[in-house]
Amino acid sequence: MFVEAPITPVTEKKDLGSPVTPARRDRNLLARLRSSSVPYLYLVPALILLVVWTYRPLVQAAQLSTVSWNLLPDSPIVSVGTANYRKLFEMPDLGDAVWLTVVLIIGLLPFTVVLPVIVGGAMRRLSSRGSRIYQGLIFAPFLVAPVAGAAVWRWLLDPGSGVVNRVLGSDRNWIYDESTAQVAIIVITGWHLIGFAVLAVAAGLAGINNDYEEAAQLDGATRRQITWRITLPLLSPTLVFLVLMTVLLSAQWTFPLIDTLTQGGPARATTNIYYLLWDYGFHTFDAGRSAAAGMLLFVGFGVIAGALVWISERITFHDK
After folding, report:
1. Alpha helices in the chain (DSSP H)
2. What is the pTM of this model?
3. pLDDT tens digits, residue range 283-320?
4. Are 207 and 125 in contact (CB under 8 A)?
């Protein structure tokens, strides 16, 4: 016969803890600081590189913009204050270069936004394999070195034996004619960039949920209504990104083509703001004026970039 023994309840002893002493409080504070500083330590190498390669040259350029120097090591560096900036605003070259930069940006937007949207929309109707092959073909010019592409286009646009003139039946010198040189630079740059823009648009279209289109079709929406009211609004972040890249980097993208084909000519017809900056520094050897133009370029495009980002946050739609 078994007798069930009564179960005595186990009482938990509460740990009241030892009183917090100043030494213990300091150790806890150091532990929290150590744990919270770990993410920032991972950023230290990138911040060091950013300071060394970006902000330090920017400060040096600001200092250089206030001196007169011809880049020769043994020549004196004379402080001139804001004279370089005043000289820039008095010269007509700066205004002409800014206007050519605006024309360049407007001319490139069809190649970086309009045509990629049309091509990207057409590729959605292809099979997966056919779409990938077409993307590879249209992306190929982006892989061509700008100098090599310039050599090919110089041959295509040759006034005597160029393929373009043979097809059009003309003898125009597209690159060295003042009225067509800028157009030639825009077309060649657009030929380089359209493949990258098409891939960006294709990636944006792939991220749009097909349920929206199917639901609209069930409601009787036409293809045009779906494109304008669903596809393009949801694609707006990608389009704003392409516009931002075009506005900020167009002058920089054209530099190797201009330097190879026209050297800023004829009659400065292709001297945009970026090439003007280089021209002051390495053709006229006026380091101070070149640095001043660079600082104006930095401030101007910084303001434009800030405005575009502010606008993009208000006009873009995100599929959340």
Report:
1. 22-50, 56-64, 83-90, 92-109, 115-123, 128-143, 146-156, 163-168, 181-206, 210-218, 223-226, 232-261, 273-282, 287-315
2. 0.79
3. 888 888 889 988 988 898 889 889 988 988 888 777 66
4. no
d(CA 285, CA 280): 6
The answer to whether the Cα torsion of 135, 140, 143, 145 is positive or negative is negative
Residue 178: count other Cβ atoms within 10 Å of its Cβ: 12
Query: How does pLDDT run across 46-96, given as a tens digit for each residue?
Result: 999 999 988 999 999 999 999 998 888 888 889 998 898 998 888 888 888
Quote the pLDDT of residue 2.
Answer: 47
The SS3 assignment for 180 reads coil
Cα(63)–Cα(239) distance, integer angstroms: 38
Distance CA 196, CA 143 (A): 10
Q: How many CB atoms lie within 10 A of CB 271?
A: 22
Those residues with Cβ within 8 angstroms of residue 5's Cβ, 6 or more apart along the chain or in another chain: none
Q: State the sign of the Cα–Cα–Cα–Cα dihedral 203, 204, 210, 213.
A: negative
Calpha distance 81→42 (Å, rounded): 40
Determine whether 149 is exposed, middle or buried from the number of CB atoms within 10 Å of its CB (0-12, 13-18, 19+): buried
Between CA 210 and CA 137 the distance in angstroms is 26
